[in-house]
Design brief:
The protein has helices spanning about 5-20, 35-50, 65-75, 95-100, 105-115, 135-150, 165-170, 180-190, 220-235, 240-245; strands at about 25, 55-60, 80-90, 120-130, 150-155, 160, 200, 210-215. The protein is an alpha/beta fold. It has one domain (about 60-245): Transcription Regulator spoIIAA. Helix 6 packs parallel to helix 8 and helix 8 crosses helix 9.
Amino acid sequence: MSIPAQLEVSIPFMQDRYDVQKYIAYFQAYSNTYAELDQLKRLYAEAVTYPNVVGLDIGTRSDCVDEALLEHLARLNEQVQVTLEYGIESIHNASLTWMNRGHDYESVIRAVELTQQYGIKVAGHIILGFPMETPEMMRQTGLAANDLSLDFLKIHQLHVVQGTVLAKRYAEKPFSLFQADEYIELVVDILERLDPNIVIQRLFGDAPDDILIAPRWGYNIPKLTHLMDLELMHRDTWQGKLFLSKK
């Protein structure tokens, strides 16, 4: 479907479900800056000129941006709020190599700093639960959001789905994955040390039940969110509690 056709279908659904009138066009799946600049300009223009679209959110990789693209996005940023969302996944290069990510963490640092120089907001996506990482290494990945001065952060648990290389590895040599309570405890450890100005856009990921192999927690996202609320209340903590105590 074309960009306008996708918006035409999506906007009425959002209006009915959330009673909202303004929208962010979200280029979500895959690396949405990996094309010739002229093609990207056309696609982005179709999104930002659609009625009541006030934001443009573009998911991509750190090795798929350059200054010419960022110059164009900076101009669009004068019309609507532009956010680039980078898949960071881990700050540990051994983990990035293991997942065949194709770039190192230094690439992420360069891309984030360059994007910020153009005045564009930056979101980061991380995954917790890589089998070669300790909980402390995962905390370091989460808290890198402070060092990078991210505007937004998405946190996702590692899970195994059918039809992937990870699924094949898991079948050949199973590795431990988080239980729900273990994951929640780790995320709360990160949240209370995180700059409270960083907006959390996601705390959990999910996959369709018919393709999810592991972990199978038996909870939906609202239930998991409730359990995280309970952990925060149990500890009498919140995002930034320990971050602010260091000031």
